[in-house]
Amino acid sequence: MAAARTILLAMAAMAILSTTSAAIYNVGEPGGAWDLSTNYGTWASSRNFHPNDQIIFKYSPQAHDVLEVSKADYDSCSAASTIATLNSGNDVVSLTATGTRYFLCGYPGHCAGGMKVKIDVVPRSSSSSPAPSSGPQCKQCSPAGACRSRHLYGGHRVWPHHLACRCRSHGLSVSLKKT
C-alpha cells in the first residue's frame, strides 16, 4: 500500500513538472544571433515567453555586449543607466516573472542599427500544450474565441478527436467537425 502510494505521488509530481517545463531561446536564432543583421522585433514577436523561460545571447564579446535597460533607455538607445551588463558572449537571462524586459547592445551605433530586443513575458495558459493558430470559431468573439486543441468543457478536457469544445469567453459550443 505504501509503495503504491509513493509511486502514485512520484507520477503526479512528474506530471506537474512536465507541464511547467521552461523553454530556452537563443536570441536571434535560427537565422541569426546577437548581431547587427537580425530583426529582433520580428524574432521576439514570433515567440511566447513565459516565466521560468531563459533567453541566451550568443555573440563575440570583442564586438558586442548586452545591457538590460529601462523602457525609456530602450526607446532612446541610451546605455546611461543600465539595470544589468552582460559581456561573456554566452549570456543566460532567466525570465523569472511576467512583464516586459528591454535589452540592447551598448557598443556605439549598434542599438541605433537595430541591436535591441523587447521581451514580453506573459503567463502560461492553463493548457499544457501550445494552442494551434486557427480552428473553429466562436461566433460571439471570433477570432479571439478560436477553438483550441484542448479546452475545458464541463470540467473535463476535450481533445481534438471530440466533436465540440466550448468558447471560454462565452460558454458557447463550437463544433470541431470539418464541413
TrEMBL record:
Residue intervals of the Phytocyanin domain: 23-123
Gene Ontology molecular function terms on file: electron transfer activity; metal ion binding
Stated name of the protein: Phytocyanin domain-containing protein
Lineage of origin: Eukaryota, Viridiplantae, Streptophyta, Embryophyta, Tracheophyta
Gene Ontology CC, one term: plasma membrane
InterPro entries, A to Z: BlueCu_1_BS, Cupredoxin, Phytocyanin-like, Phytocyanin_dom
CDD domains given in the database record: Phytocyanin (cd04216)
Signal peptide: 1-22
Record keywords: Copper, Glycoprotein, Metal-binding, Signal
